[in-house]
Design goal:
The structure holds 2 protein chains of 2 kinds. Chain A is 31% helix and 13% strand. Chain A is α+β, with helices and mostly antiparallel strands. Chain A has 2 domains: 98 residues, Beta-grasp domain (Ubiquitin-like (UB roll), Roll), CATH 3.10.20; 129 residues, Fumarate Reductase Iron-sulfur Protein, Chain B, domain 2 (Orthogonal Bundle), CATH 1.10.1060.10. In chain A, helix 5 crosses helix 8. In chain B, 78% of the residues lie in helices and 0% in strands. Chain B contains 4 helices and no strands. The radius of gyration of chain B is 19 Å and the shape is elongated. Chain B starts with 12 loop residues before the first helix and ends with a helix. The chains are: A alpha+beta, B mainly alpha.
């Protein structure tokens, strides 16, 4: 199998280049990450992040044949050769397939991704009805791999101002939580032509999400709530 | 490295809503217009001119033009916010587009009421 992988080591390369690799393997029942690790045995200078190798940690997000995804849950047999691997788009490259996620997490932090509840802490957990709990389905599963945000042109054009689909999905995850008491503050925080309204609903995020979540829908619900309190 | 930026202008909902409402107004107007003209047996300049003699038609025409201009304002501002990053240049473009759109509005009134 043929691979073409983005290489860049800022300590010795003046600019990035693509390097070709060949593997003599049977792609059946193998994931892309398995192949990358075999390539890494050939060439240990190739740098890549990975941890759980089963689509839970969100470390190995990369651009695979032009589409963002997690290498560990991408079946090798579905990919057209040469398999072109590049780092996630729109974030600074630290080395090879590793990008600097600081900006991404800065936006995540800015939406206060934790429960805000001013009541005295109860003896037991804060309870929720099954119906209220169900409202968090499709929101809480996000693993913050960054595939969606780095596939979003609005994030490419305004990376320092637009929160991005991952951050906005998490913002809505807490807006939707029946135990949270800061809905209005959260909406104040998001109501901004850059932070929220750079989203033009082109749904690249939905297209690439490895967990099959729908940030566009969550963003739509935030907009609906803003309209409700404005009109 | 993350650069610190100022953000949090606390507006945007009205513009977003306006873009959708004006789109709806334009879609309804266009469909009604198309329906009316398909239903009309005669399609010539005289019929067109006679139709615009009705005050409500002119008013609806103006409403359409105003919707178009407001819609264009939100859309153009979105394009500038996405692609034009120097603040001074963006502000200049905003002013230019506003002046153009106001001119178009005046021009549209002149055209619609010039038919009489």
């Amino acid at each position: 199998m043929r691979f073409s992988i983005y290489r860049y080591n800022p300590e010795c390369d003046s600019k990035p280049y693509m390097q070709d690799y060949e593997l003599d393997i049977d792609p059946a029942s193998m994931m892309l990450l398995d192949a990358i690790l075999l390539i890494k045995e050939q060439d240990e200078t190739l740098s890549v992040r990975r941890s759980c190798r089963e689509g839970v940690c969100g470390s190995d997000g990369m651009n695979i044949n032009g589409r963002n995804g997690l290498a560990c849950v991408t079946p090798l047999s579905n990919l057209k050769q040469p398999i072109t691997l590049r780092p996630l788009t729109g974030l600074p490259v630290i080395r090879d397939l590793i990008v600097d996620m600081s900006q991404f997490f800065e936006h995540y932090r800015s939406v206060q991704p934790y429960l805000i509840n001013h009541d005295p802490e109860p003896e037991i957990e804060r309870l929720q009805s099954p119906a209220d709990r169900a409202k968090l389905d499709g929101l809480y599963e996000c693993i913050l791999c960054g595939c969606c945000t780095t596939a979003c042109p609005s994030f490419w054009w305004n990376p320092n101002k637009f929160v991005g689909p991952a951050g906005l999905l998490q913002a809505y995850r807490f807006i939707a939580d029946s135990r949270d008491q800061a809905v209005n503050e959260r909406l104040d925080n998001l109501e901004d032509p850059y932070r929220l309204f750079r989203c033009h609903s082109i749904m690249n995020c939905v297209d690439v999400c490895p967990k099959e979540l729908n940030p566009t829908q969550a963003i739509g619900k935030i907009k609906t709530l803003l309209v409700k309190r404005t009109v | 490295m993350v650069k610190r930026v100022v953000s949090g202008a606390h507006y945007g909902t009205r513009d977003w809503l306006m873009q959708r409402v004006t789109a709806l107004i334009m879609a309804v107007f266009t469909l009604c217009m198309l329906g009316y003209w398909l239903w009309q047996p005669r399609l010539d300049y005289a019929a067109w001119r006679a139709w615009f003699q009705y005050f409500p038609v002119r008013l609806l025409g103006l409403l359409f033009v105003l919707s178009l201009l407001l819609h264009a304002w939100v859309g153009m501002r979105d394009i500038f916010m996405d692609y034009v990053h120097p603040t001074g240049l963006r502000l200049a473009l905003h002013v230019l587009v506003i002046m153009l759109l106001v001119t178009y509005a005046a021009w549209a009134v002149q055209i619609l009421w010039g038919v009489v």
